[in-house]
Amino acid sequence: MKTRILLIEDDENITELVRYNLERAGYQVEAIADGEEGLYHASQECPDVILLDWMLPNLSGLEICRQLRRKDTTANVPIIMLTARADEPDRIRGLETGADDYIVKPFSPKELLARIQAVLRRVRPALAGHELVFEDIKLDNVSHRVTRGDQPVHLGPTEYRLLRHFMENPGRVFSREQLLDSVWGHDVYVEPRTVDVHIRRLRKAINEHGGKDFIRTVRSAGYALDNR
User: Fold this and answer.
1) Predicted TM-score (pTM) above 0.85
2) Which end of the chain is more exposed for a tag (fewer CB within 10 A), N or C?
């Protein structure tokens, strides 16, 4: 499944430049030119990366960043600000608001791609190698084997995909609908409550030999893999 990037930018020329280069690199790009609409879309769809302009119609990029960081579902989504504001105080303000990176316009497509890849490596370990590790849980993407401590964990295909998705995005909260899209796929119709069944099976399997339950249920929001 392609990495999903949400671009919130009102300059049509920059939008087309970014879209062309990112799609050519294999990313899926959704572009929105309005601040309020961008905030709503980011909250509902929870993309893998958000590219965010500072100056936007109806709602500034800074306020969008601030609000996204307050929501459980988007608190850990990587945000890269794209802005013409090059002064150091502006950079600091953007980073303190919650942006993971800050790119000043004009920028080169190669630099943007490198920054996206860098931020993804930090939040999605799968991009850095074949093995995913979270606390004492290890998942090998090549052999499709999962262990916890020294014990093998036996998972069905759906539970394996769920765990891999969680381990690629540690700490992020996903709604049932988002998990259905990411794990089952957009073209498969499955009842949202089916997710609960597979979460229970995954919990049972990874906790079979004891240890902390790392799958957190977030009321009215969804599920996350973290060590809180």
Assistant:
1) no
2) C
